[in-house]
Amino acid sequence: MKKFFKPTWIWAAVLLTTLVFLVQSGSQVTAWAEDRYSELQNFSKVLNLVQQYYVEEVDTKKMIYGAIKGMLRELDPHTNFMPPELFKDFESETSGEFGGLGVEISLRNGVLTVISPIEDTPAWIAGVKPGDQIVAVNGKETAGLTLVEASQLFRGKNGSAVKLKIQRENLEDPIEIKIVRGNVKIHSVKMTDLDKGYVYIKVTSFIENTSSDLEKALDQFVTKNKKIEGMVLDLRRNPGGLLDQATKVSDLFLSEGTIVSVVGRNKKDKDISFATKKGKYTNFPLVVLVNEASASASEIVSGALQDNHRAIIAGTRTFGKGSVQSVVKLGDGSGLKLTVAKYYTPSGKSIQAEGIKPDLEIVEVDPDAAQKMVAKQKTLRERDMKGHLLGDSEKNVGKGKSDSKDDTFDWYREVIAKKEADLTPKEKIFHKDFQAFQAFQHMKSISRVK
Question: What is the DSSP letter of 264?
Fold first, then answer.
């Protein structure tokens, strides 16, 4: 373990450096520096008093770490200090494989709140939902914890259990959910062939290989189907991830234009990402499905495709996490995650606390209610009458030509009438997801008009 100098010597060095700086600076800088030093001097005095007179021996390193954490609590919830053991865990999370629960969290009004559980992870399987407020972990209250401190409580040996006390909307009393920790390996891209050239792709998060996996999936689909007639890109409950992956995913669908602007304290200093003109998938109808749990990188992709008129954004307004964090590794192995900028869409709209407003609002409907609603919409037509005069398309059935049967709600009625065990991969997507079905139908309508 490294030996720590007494604070007196530390601040003596700070004072000497400050004095040299003051000699070389003007009176305005001098006044600024003197003001700042007086505040630091108070910190030094308090630390010395605690070391000398506190009733028990204190751990100086722990005290300084605590002071840093307290200082950062005055900033936004995404700015955090990570001691070495936490920083090591943090570095492993974006590689796509780590131990834990698989849940993205945030602080809303000081309450630890779930943005979204990542699909197929322990938290997802256990039934954790977006918007859940985690009030205790294994009996320890979460009030006052930072995000990194809360994340540390989630971690543990694979196979061990953790109990979350959750307050859920519309429930009067908190519920307890037991989750078995596991090795969280994220497969961020999931493709389903909807036949006839239509494809549905779910992106669950933006990790190191998301853009390359998405490109491979689309290449495979084109090899099999010759072309893409239309696509639904599902970013619902996607809590985000890496900025460069959001940029690369957007670039796949754009031939030109701005993708995102990153603006720091100096508004004139902008870091703008542009489409590289290498986009391979720019000419087919695209609907991007989002909801209130779509955050960060998901919002960058949605904003880029919306503002460049490349896609229709459908669903509900997104989460609104539009700040940029820079991670700095410190000398002792600890780390600082610092908010340094904000994201702006190509049209100049800030994502922060605003989110992406969909072009087409499609609310999420309870599966049972949606199925009943669709079933009731069945109406009697001429073609349903016994002995009706056949139409031309009906006469052509069996001659290689398609009939005029409604392939929208009629098909969906057949799907919801099936047992889950009898569903095809395509049908499983829409069986209990009316929101996704409506996005698919809208995409097909655009394709037909085009």
Answer: -
Torsion sign over Cα 316, 320, 326, 328: negative
> Are 349 and 303 within 8 A, CB to CB?
yes
Cα–Cα distance for residue pair 384/374, rounded to 1 Å: 18
Q: Distance (Å, rounded) from C-alpha 102 to C-alpha 152?
A: 13
Residue 218 in tokens: 């689309």
For 220, 248, 293, 357, the CA distances from 231, given in Å and listed in that order, are: 14, 18, 21, 20
Structure tokens at 92: 């492993």
> What integer pLDDT is reported at residue 310 of this predicted model?
98
pLDDT of 405 reads: 45
Beta bridge partner(s), residue 175: 166
Beta strand extents in 132-226 (DSSP E only): 133-137, 140-141, 161-167, 175-180, 182-185, 189-193, 198-203
Q: Are 352 and 342 in contact (CB under 8 A)?
A: yes
- The answer to whether 214 touches 226, Cβ cutoff 8 Å, is no
pLDDT tens figures, 275-319: 998 899 999 999 999 999 999 999 999 999 999 999 999 999 999
For the chain, what is the total number of helices (H) and then of strands (E)? 14, 19
- 57: three-class secondary structure by DSSP: coil
For residue 336, which phi and psi values (nearest 5 degrees)? -120, 125
Contact in structure between 238 and 206 (CB atoms under 8 Å):
yes
Separation CA 152–CA 368 (nearest Å): 38
Output the CA torsion sign for 116, 119, 125, 127.
positive
Q: Quote the Cα angle for 282-284-287, to 5°.
A: 100
Question: Residue 12 gets which letter from DSSP?
Answer: H
CA nearest to 355, candidates 398, 402, 410, 313: 313
Position 402 scores a pLDDT of 44
The DSSP symbol for 366 reads -
Instruction: Determine contact, residues 59/1, Cβ cutoff 8 Å.
Output: no
* Residue 193 Ramachandran class (φ > 0 left, ψ -120 to 50 alpha, else beta): beta
Active centre residues (catalytic) = 296, 307, 321
Pairing of strands 286-290, 230-234: parallel
Q: Is 405 helix (H, G, I), strand (E, B) or coil?
A: coil
Q: Is the per-residue pLDDT at 383 higher than 60?
A: yes
